Protein backbone atom coordinates (compact mmCIF):
# COMPACT_ATOMS: atom_id res chain seq x y z
CA UNK A 1 0.00 0.00 0.00
CA UNK A 2 1.41 3.35 -1.10
CA UNK A 3 -0.13 6.37 0.59
CA UNK A 4 0.66 10.04 0.05
CA UNK A 5 -0.52 12.75 2.44
CA UNK A 6 -0.60 16.30 1.17
CA UNK A 7 -2.12 19.65 2.11
CA UNK A 8 -1.25 23.21 3.06
CA UNK A 9 1.42 23.69 5.76
CA UNK A 10 -0.10 23.34 9.24
CA UNK A 11 -3.04 21.26 8.10
CA UNK A 12 -1.73 18.19 9.95
CA UNK A 13 0.18 15.96 7.51
CA UNK A 14 2.96 15.02 9.91
CA UNK A 15 0.63 14.51 12.87
CA UNK A 16 -1.83 12.33 10.94
CA UNK A 17 1.03 10.55 9.12
CA UNK A 18 2.59 9.41 12.38
CA UNK A 19 -0.68 7.98 13.68
CA UNK A 20 -1.46 6.25 10.39
CA UNK A 21 2.02 4.81 10.08
CA UNK A 22 1.61 3.09 13.46
CA UNK A 23 -1.93 1.89 12.76
CA UNK A 24 -1.19 0.53 9.29
CA UNK A 25 2.36 -0.53 10.13
CA UNK A 26 3.83 1.30 7.13
CA UNK A 27 7.15 3.18 7.07
CA UNK A 28 6.69 6.95 7.15
CA UNK A 29 8.68 9.38 5.05
CA UNK A 30 8.67 13.07 5.87
CA UNK A 31 9.26 14.57 2.45
CA UNK A 32 11.00 17.79 3.43
CA UNK A 33 13.51 15.77 5.45
CA UNK A 34 13.89 13.18 2.69
CA UNK A 35 14.43 15.83 0.01
CA UNK A 36 17.18 17.40 2.09
CA UNK A 37 18.90 14.17 3.11
CA UNK A 38 18.70 12.45 -0.28
CA UNK A 39 19.34 15.67 -2.20
CA UNK A 40 16.16 15.38 -4.23
CA UNK A 41 16.19 19.11 -4.94
CA UNK A 42 17.22 21.27 -7.85
CA UNK A 43 18.00 24.45 -5.95
CA UNK A 44 17.70 26.24 -2.67
CA UNK A 45 15.17 29.03 -2.32
CA UNK A 46 16.88 31.53 -0.04
CA UNK A 47 13.82 33.70 0.39
CA UNK A 48 11.63 30.81 1.44
CA UNK A 49 14.40 29.05 3.31
CA UNK A 50 13.44 25.82 1.57
CA UNK A 51 14.70 23.41 -1.05
CA UNK A 52 13.02 23.33 -4.43
CA UNK A 53 12.05 19.72 -5.07
CA UNK A 54 13.04 18.02 -8.32
CA UNK A 55 9.92 15.93 -9.03
CA UNK A 56 11.80 13.39 -11.19
CA UNK A 57 14.31 12.68 -8.41
CA UNK A 58 11.49 12.32 -5.91
CA UNK A 59 9.64 9.84 -8.13
CA UNK A 60 12.84 7.91 -8.74
CA UNK A 61 13.39 7.52 -5.00
CA UNK A 62 9.98 5.88 -4.56
CA UNK A 63 10.18 3.75 -7.71
CA UNK A 64 9.74 0.07 -6.83
CA UNK A 65 8.67 0.81 -3.26
CA UNK A 66 5.29 -0.79 -2.61
CA UNK A 67 4.63 0.00 1.06
CA UNK A 68 5.00 3.45 2.48
CA UNK A 69 3.37 6.63 3.67
CA UNK A 70 4.92 9.80 2.23
CA UNK A 71 3.79 13.02 3.87
CA UNK A 72 4.57 16.51 2.69
CA UNK A 73 3.23 19.22 0.46
CA UNK A 74 4.88 17.67 -2.60
CA UNK A 75 3.39 14.20 -1.99
CA UNK A 76 1.14 14.62 -5.01
CA UNK A 77 4.17 14.15 -7.29
CA UNK A 78 4.61 10.54 -6.17
CA UNK A 79 2.56 7.74 -7.77
CA UNK A 80 0.44 6.24 -4.99
CA UNK A 81 -2.56 3.99 -4.40
CA UNK A 82 -4.13 6.60 -2.14
CA UNK A 83 -3.59 10.32 -1.96
CA UNK A 84 -4.91 11.85 1.24
CA UNK A 85 -5.58 15.58 0.89
CA UNK A 86 -6.05 17.23 4.27
CA UNK A 87 -8.06 20.43 4.38
CA UNK A 88 -8.90 22.85 7.20
CA UNK A 89 -10.76 26.13 7.43
CA UNK A 90 -8.28 28.97 6.78
CA UNK A 91 -8.89 30.36 10.28
CA UNK A 92 -7.93 26.98 11.71
CA UNK A 93 -4.81 26.83 9.56
CA UNK A 94 -3.87 30.24 10.95
CA UNK A 95 -4.37 29.01 14.52
CA UNK A 96 -2.32 25.86 13.90
CA UNK A 97 0.51 27.89 12.32
CA UNK A 98 0.59 30.44 15.11
CA UNK A 99 2.30 27.83 17.27
CA UNK A 100 5.31 28.08 14.99
CA UNK A 101 8.15 30.59 14.73
CA UNK A 102 6.90 31.70 11.30
CA UNK A 103 6.75 35.28 10.14
CA UNK A 104 3.30 36.79 9.83
CA UNK A 105 3.80 36.93 6.07
CA UNK A 106 4.52 33.22 5.87
CA UNK A 107 1.48 32.42 7.99
CA UNK A 108 -0.78 34.56 5.80
CA UNK A 109 0.65 33.08 2.59
CA UNK A 110 -0.31 29.63 3.78
CA UNK A 111 -3.74 30.71 5.01
CA UNK A 112 -4.36 32.18 1.55
CA UNK A 113 -3.08 29.02 -0.16
CA UNK A 114 -5.59 26.96 1.83
CA UNK A 115 -8.40 29.39 1.07
CA UNK A 116 -7.67 29.06 -2.66
CA UNK A 117 -7.13 25.28 -2.51
CA UNK A 118 -3.72 25.58 -4.18
CA UNK A 119 -2.42 22.15 -3.15
CA UNK A 120 -5.68 20.29 -3.77
CA UNK A 121 -5.97 21.86 -7.23
CA UNK A 122 -2.42 20.86 -8.12
CA UNK A 123 -3.10 17.29 -7.05
CA UNK A 124 -6.23 17.03 -9.19
CA UNK A 125 -4.69 18.73 -12.22
CA UNK A 126 -1.87 16.21 -12.38
CA UNK A 127 -3.21 13.09 -10.68
CA UNK A 128 -0.65 10.49 -9.61
CA UNK A 129 -3.11 8.58 -7.43
CA UNK A 130 -5.47 5.66 -7.98
CA UNK A 131 -7.85 6.73 -5.25
CA UNK A 132 -8.29 9.92 -3.30
CA UNK A 133 -9.35 10.84 0.23
CA UNK A 134 -10.16 14.53 0.53
CA UNK A 135 -10.99 15.24 4.14
CA UNK A 136 -11.93 18.25 6.23
CA UNK A 137 -9.95 18.16 9.50
CA UNK A 138 -11.53 21.35 10.89
CA UNK A 139 -13.67 19.88 13.67
CA UNK A 140 -11.81 16.64 14.12
CA UNK A 141 -8.89 15.41 16.17
CA UNK A 142 -5.83 13.94 14.41
CA UNK A 143 -6.89 10.50 15.72
CA UNK A 144 -10.35 10.86 14.18
CA UNK A 145 -8.85 11.90 10.85
CA UNK A 146 -6.45 8.93 10.90
CA UNK A 147 -9.31 6.59 11.76
CA UNK A 148 -11.43 7.80 8.85
CA UNK A 149 -8.49 7.37 6.48
CA UNK A 150 -7.77 3.88 7.81
CA UNK A 151 -11.40 2.82 7.48
CA UNK A 152 -11.69 4.17 3.92
CA UNK A 153 -8.43 2.52 2.83
CA UNK A 154 -9.34 -0.84 4.37
CA UNK A 155 -12.59 -0.87 2.40
CA UNK A 156 -10.82 0.16 -0.81
CA UNK A 157 -13.15 3.15 -1.07
CA UNK A 158 -12.69 6.82 -1.86
CA UNK A 159 -13.85 9.81 0.13
CA UNK A 160 -14.50 13.32 -1.06
CA UNK A 161 -15.74 15.83 1.48
CA UNK A 162 -16.81 19.11 -0.07
CA UNK A 163 -15.26 22.24 1.37
CA UNK A 164 -15.66 25.84 0.30
CA UNK A 165 -13.51 28.42 2.01
CA UNK A 166 -14.42 31.23 -0.37
CA UNK A 167 -17.78 32.22 1.09
N1 LIG B 1 -7.72 17.06 12.98
C1 LIG B 1 -6.43 17.38 12.97
N2 LIG B 1 -5.63 16.79 12.08
C2 LIG B 1 -4.33 17.11 12.05
N3 LIG B 1 -3.72 18.00 12.86
C3 LIG B 1 -4.47 18.62 13.78
C4 LIG B 1 -5.85 18.34 13.86
N4 LIG B 1 -6.36 19.08 14.84
C5 LIG B 1 -5.35 19.79 15.35
N5 LIG B 1 -4.18 19.52 14.74
C6 LIG B 1 -2.90 20.13 15.08
O1 LIG B 1 -2.46 20.91 13.98
C7 LIG B 1 -1.02 20.90 13.93
C8 LIG B 1 -0.62 20.42 12.57
O2 LIG B 1 0.76 20.37 12.49
P1 LIG B 1 1.57 19.39 11.53
O3 LIG B 1 3.00 19.63 11.85
O4 LIG B 1 1.07 18.00 11.63
O5 LIG B 1 1.18 19.98 10.08
P2 LIG B 1 1.89 19.70 8.68
O6 LIG B 1 0.78 19.62 7.68
O7 LIG B 1 2.79 18.55 8.79
O8 LIG B 1 2.69 21.04 8.41
P3 LIG B 1 4.02 21.26 7.49
O9 LIG B 1 3.57 21.26 6.07
O10 LIG B 1 4.54 22.59 7.86
O11 LIG B 1 4.97 20.15 7.81
C9 LIG B 1 -0.55 20.00 15.07
O12 LIG B 1 -0.25 20.79 16.17
C10 LIG B 1 -1.79 19.14 15.33
O13 LIG B 1 -1.83 18.64 16.64
MG1 LIG C 1 4.87 18.42 8.54
TrEMBL record:
Q: Which residues form a coiled coil?
A: none
Known Gene3D superfamilies for this protein? P-loop containing nucleotide triphosphate hydrolases
* Gene Ontology biological process terms from the UniProt entry: rRNA processing
Q: Name one Pfam family in it.
A: AAA_18
The alphabetized UniProt keywords are:
ATP-binding, Kinase, Nucleotide-binding, Ribosome biogenesis, rRNA processing, Transferase
GO terms (molecular function) for this protein are:
AMP kinase activity; ATP binding; ATP hydrolysis activity
Q: Could you name the domain of life of the organism this protein comes from?
A: Bacteria
Q: Which InterPro entries match?
A: Adenyl_kinase_AK6, P-loop_NTPase
Q: Which PANTHER family match?
A: ADENYLATE KINASE ISOENZYME 6 (PTHR12595:SF0), POS9-ACTIVATING FACTOR FAP7-RELATED (PTHR12595)
- Please state what the protein is called: Adenylate kinase
Per the UniProt record, the source organism is Thermovibrio guaymasensis
Record lineage? Bacteria, Pseudomonadati, Aquificota, Aquificia, Desulfurobacteriales
Amino acid sequence: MRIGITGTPGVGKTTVGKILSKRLNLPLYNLSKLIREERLYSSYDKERNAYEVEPEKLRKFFEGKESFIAEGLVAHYIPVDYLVILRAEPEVVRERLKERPYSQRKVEENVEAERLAVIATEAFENPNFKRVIHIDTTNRSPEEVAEIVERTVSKGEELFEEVDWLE
